[in-house]
Amino acid sequence: MKVELVPTILTQTFAEFKAKMEKLDDYFDLVQIDCADGEFVKNKTFYDIDKIKSLIFNADLELHLMVTNPLKEIKKWQNYKKVKTIIFHYEAVINDKKILGIINYLKKCKIKAGLAVNPETKFEKFKKFLPILDLVLVLGVKPGWGGQKFQSKVLNKIKQIRQSFPQIDIEVDGGVNFDNAKEIIMAGANILAVGSMFKDLRNIKKLEKLI
User: Fold this and answer.
1) H or E element that contains 92
2) Which residue among 21, 33, 166, 188 is least enclosed by CB atoms within 10 Å?
3) Looking at 25, 29, 34, 134, which residue is catalytic?
4) Domain boundaries, the chain
5) Nearest Cα to 92, choosing from 62, 112, 72?
6) Is there a contact between 64 and 35 (Cβ–Cβ < 8 Å)?
């Protein structure tokens, strides 16, 4: 499987968001926006759809919803053509019927459906949803904040997913760097979401060479 890099934007203000998007847009076709509501996670990030729509950029968008009410947020973004993938948290919903409902809703909207799982969430808990998901996002850190250290215990979970579902896209987000990227890919991940490491854009080329 080809390994992809997806840069993440985790910012607090529109000015910060705009500056980061302008930088990344020259290098990437897909950019992830970290949407944190200050409730599901303690951090609150900038993700105002109207202001984002006012910007001109080429990249498509992937949303990582760290919010207590994912469906409400999805409905705000569903008609914005740049949004190709929306990832919501297993831990924000937990109810199986509601999770299935959100996945089916995204598919009806022709948006790729992704489920994010925190480091402590066991494979058995979310395994049943994987056959109908486009993507699973394995968090290597506690969600909400950039610059945290990758928790190597999640490597086993990545292996379990890849062995059971060879075709699914496995994205890993949180603490990905030069030291662990190879190990994460060897475990079975084929998409690496990278945030604070891309403050220096020279690291993009270095990481591409490594993978």
Assistant:
1) helix 90-93
2) 166
3) 34
4) 4-210
5) 72
6) yes
What is the H or E stretch that residue 97 is in? helix 96-108
pLDDT for the residue numbered 149: 84
Locate tokens 């250290």: which residue?
149
Helix %, strand %, coil % for the chain, to 5? 40, 25, 35
Q: Which two tokens stand for residue 72?
A: 């409400």
In whole numbers, what is the pLDDT of the chain averaged over residues? 92
Task: Grade residue 110 by pLDDT with cuts at 50, 70 and 90.
Answer: very high
Catalytic residue among 37, 134, 169, 173: 173
Catalytic residue flag (residue 34): yes
| Integer Cα distance of 114 and 90 in angstroms | 10
What does the alpha-carbon distance between residue 21 and residue 11 come to, in Å, rounded to a whole number? 10
Q: Pairing mode, if any, of strands 135-139 and 60-66?
A: unpaired
> For the chain, how far is it from start to end, CA to CA, in angstroms?
12
CATH code of 4-210, in short, is: 3.20.20.70
pLDDT in tens, 161-183: 999 999 999 999 988 888 888 99
Q: Which of 130, 124, 194, 123 is nearest to 168 (CA)?
A: 130
- At 95, the pLDDT band (50, 70, 90 cuts) reads very high
Residue 115 pLDDT: 98
* Confidence grade of residue 202 (pLDDT, cut at 50, 70, 90): confident
Q: How far apart are CA 107 and CA 30, in angstroms?
A: 19
